[in-house]
Design a protein that fits this description.
Elements lengths: L1 H28 L6 H4 L1
């Protein structure tokens, strides 16, 4: 049971890092269309 929780947490961390990388890519490719309200 505890193994599932650790696996889930690992997947969430990977997803979060992927989302952060995607956000960086979008911001670097579109410097004129930065929507700060969406991401903070």
């Amino acid at each position: 049971m505890l193994g599932h929780v650790v696996d889930l947490r690992d997947k969430v961390e990977k997803l979060t890092s992927q989302v952060e990388q995607l956000t960086e890519v979008v911001e670097t490719t579109r410097p004129g269309q930065r929507r700060r309200g969406l991401f903070g």
